[in-house]
Write a sequence for this structure.
């Protein structure tokens, strides 16, 4: 067990390191003139020199990558306009266009993205599992067919279109905005409600299908028959005995899915105009702010890898049927 | 499920028994018609009415894209002419549908909407079909090599597949077009429109292909691992058939079902990806007509001019829905175990 976890951790770290190297090559080795791009449209020769010196763009590639890793581990210094600023570890670079370290910029956007995903995920998990379970209980009836059909249609229409239509036409919902939870929890929930409902409704479609399939399987098992033969109520059979067994695969999917949602809230944030990670990254794209883009890619990849790792380890603990070969 | 060999041209029941038992000794004549599994699946698909309707919708959109110039000429408009004379001082069009402008004109710029609509079908379909073809070929070849050859080749390919699947695709899809212009040697802040358009097209296809092949390769590898130990492969090896022939003549025909299923399910996702990325502003750029761009522009006019928004919205939704349902039907036809 311990050996398995260790092996998984090492492979996860290797994936993150390779991602950093690959994105470094993509952003700083592949372009002909990275300093010119980072410098932006209103570039002065001094600023260009600052950038070249601070990022060590005149030195060999290996040394540049080494310095970037050193920045992540212990921090490094950047010179901008004659002033040297220290960028604390984990330093993901320095945005010359905005004049702030990338880590600070992204850290400010993280609570927004987290709020959106946590609220949305709660809604779609509850809704999806509930509808899926009910559909499984009344399997084959019109109600079941309606639930499956609706989830199929909702799941097939592109997410950004559903989100856009909700954002434009559901004007009875409170105006979408972000307030910190610690400042005013009610305003926080109100401002995010539209985004939560949108994320929740569209994603509950696939959870309906997962939990329906899983529930049908669980209800066909021997233990369900045993539970029924004991004479306990049908409600208890379904929600106590069936649901528990049916939830293991759904929770596994949920774990990985939340990681993808964190990385993919770009559409939700853009459409509901919330200042999260996705909006940051789109803004960085529009300004050709390569350090911010690179920081975003690295953070996104790390979130995915870490969540996958956690789910895998949890799965081996939760489900005794998983044997480690 | 239908029988693999159909017994055709049988005499009526009584007669055939007579023939069997007749002392004249005429043996029963059974004409057998052999069908490959693919033919059986296609026959099953033809009977699926929903699948045929969805196929019809897909063909309809392809025809629109192919004959876009013809359709625009029929209407007598093009995608770029600004009809400023039909725009009032607030930027709203003064006409709705006329015989000259079948779907009306854009607010503010006054470009013809019908022409932009029919031309807008092109980028989605071109990108989606190109990417499906590239990912199909690369995924199958990689999966075949990894599954059949094993050893260090398998380890390397499998690691790359795991690596690609663990990357955040959407973030790379945003990052790549930012870099690709300067990779091509132009400064992105000074590049002209045609350079940007070309680079965006390239970036879309590159990114979607890079992230699309891995899941197919993993699927094919798994299939090959189980097929590899079967007798007919062993027989081919013993007979001294060269490896490339074993791969493409023996293994590949047995992989037709998973390949067709996964590519038909992948096609609509690429259409969504193109439209979505263009909507975000990281895909195609003006003045290229694209549904994603139109949707993005139309959001500011959705109350005054609902058709401007709803035409591309409905078009993409219907196309993607039809393709997804068609993909499901194809999966059911090729793999009856998954039938709903």
């Amino acid at each position: 067990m311990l050996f398995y976890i260790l092996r998984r951790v090492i492979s996860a770290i290797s994936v993150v390191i390779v991602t950093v190297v690959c994105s470094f090559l993509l952003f700083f080795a592949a372009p002909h003139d990275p300093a010119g791009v980072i410098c932006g449209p209103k570039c002065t020769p001094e600023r260009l020199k600052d950038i070249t010196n601070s990022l060590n763009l005149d030195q060999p590639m290996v040394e540049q990558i080494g310095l970037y890793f050193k920045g992540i581990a212990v921090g490094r210094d950047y010179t901008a306009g004659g002033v040297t600023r220290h960028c604390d570890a984990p330093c993901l670079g320095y945005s010359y266009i905005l004049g702030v370290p990338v880590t600070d910029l992204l850290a400010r956007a993280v609570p927004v993205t987290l709020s959106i995903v946590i609220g949305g995920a709660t809604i779609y998990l509850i809704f999806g599992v509930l509808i899926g379970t009910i559909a499984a209980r009344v399997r084959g009836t019109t109600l079941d067919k309606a639930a499956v059909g609706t989830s199929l249609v909702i799941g097939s229409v592109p997410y950004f279109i559903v989100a856009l239509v909700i954002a434009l036409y559901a004007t009875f919902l409170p105006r979408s905005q972000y307030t910190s939870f610690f400042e005013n929890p009610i305003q926080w929930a109100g401002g995010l409600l539209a985004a939560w409902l949108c994320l929740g409704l569209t994603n509950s479609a696939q959870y309906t299908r997962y939990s329906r399939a899983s529930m049908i399987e669980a209800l066909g098992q021997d233990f369900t028959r045993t539970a029924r033969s004991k004479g306990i109520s049908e409600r208890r059979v379904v929600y106590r005995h069936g649901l528990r067994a049916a939830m293991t695969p759904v929770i596994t999917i949920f774990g990985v899915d939340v990681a993808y949602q964190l990385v993919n809230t770009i559409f939700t944030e853009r459409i509901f105009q919330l200042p999260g990670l996705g909006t940051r990254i789109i803004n960085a794209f529009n300004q050709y702010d390569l350090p911010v883009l690179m920081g975003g890619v690295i953070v996104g990849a790390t979130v995915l890898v870490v969540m996958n790792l956690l789910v895998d380890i949890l799965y081996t603990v939760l489900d005794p049927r998983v044997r480690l070969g | 499920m239908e029988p693999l060999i159909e017994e055709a041209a049988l005499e009526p029941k009584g007669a055939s028994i007579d023939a069997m038992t007749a002392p004249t000794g005429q043996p029963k004549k059974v004409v057998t018609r052999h069908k490959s599994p693919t033919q059986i699946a296609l026959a099953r698909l033809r009977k699926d009415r929903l699948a045929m309707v969805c196929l019809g919708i897909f063909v309809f959109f392809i025809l629109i894209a192919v004959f876009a110039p013809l359709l625009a000429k029929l209407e007598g408009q093009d995608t770029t002419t600004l009809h400023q004379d039909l725009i009032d001082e607030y930027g709203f069009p003064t006409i709705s549908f006329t015989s000259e402008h079948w779907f009306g004109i854009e607010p503010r710029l006054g470009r013809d909407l019908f022409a932009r609509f029919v031309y807008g079908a092109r980028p989605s379909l071109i990108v989606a079909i190109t990417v499906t073809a590239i990912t199909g070929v690369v995924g199958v070849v990689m999966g075949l090599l990894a599954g059949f050859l094993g050893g260090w080749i398998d380890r390397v390919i499998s690691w790359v597949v795991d690596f690609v699947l663990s990357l955040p695709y959407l973030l790379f899809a945003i990052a790549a077009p930012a870099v690709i212009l300067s990779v091509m040697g132009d400064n992105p802040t000074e590049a002209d429109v045609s350079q940007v358009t070309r680079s965006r097209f390239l970036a879309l296809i590159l990114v979607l292909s890079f992230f699309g092949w891995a899941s197919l390769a993993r699927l094919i590898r798994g299939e090959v691992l189980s097929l590899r130990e079967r007798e007919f492969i062993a027989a081919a090896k013993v007979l001294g058939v060269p490896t490339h022939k074993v791969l493409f003549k023996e293994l590949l025909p047995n992989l037709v079902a998973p390949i067709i299923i996964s590519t038909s399910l992948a096609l609509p996702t690429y259409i969504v990806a193109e439209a979505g990325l263009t909507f975000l502003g990281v895909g195609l750029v003006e003045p290229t007509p694209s549904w994603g761009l139109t949707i993005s522009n139309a959001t500011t006019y959705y109350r005054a001019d609902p058709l401007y928004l709803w035409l591309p919205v409905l078009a993409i939704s219907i196309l993607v829905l039809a393709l997804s349902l068609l993909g499901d039907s194809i999966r059911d036809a090729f793999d009856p175990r998954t039938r709903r």
About this structure: The interface with chain A takes residues 162-163, 166-168, 170-172, 174-179, 182-183, 185, 187-189, 268, 272, 275-276, 279-282, 295, 299, 302, 309, 313, 316-317, 320-321, 324-325, 328, 340 of chain B (CB under 8 Å). Confidence is low (pLDDT under 50) at residues 1-22 of chain B. The CA atoms of residues 228 and 330 of chain B lie 26 Å apart. The radius of gyration of chain B is 27 Å.
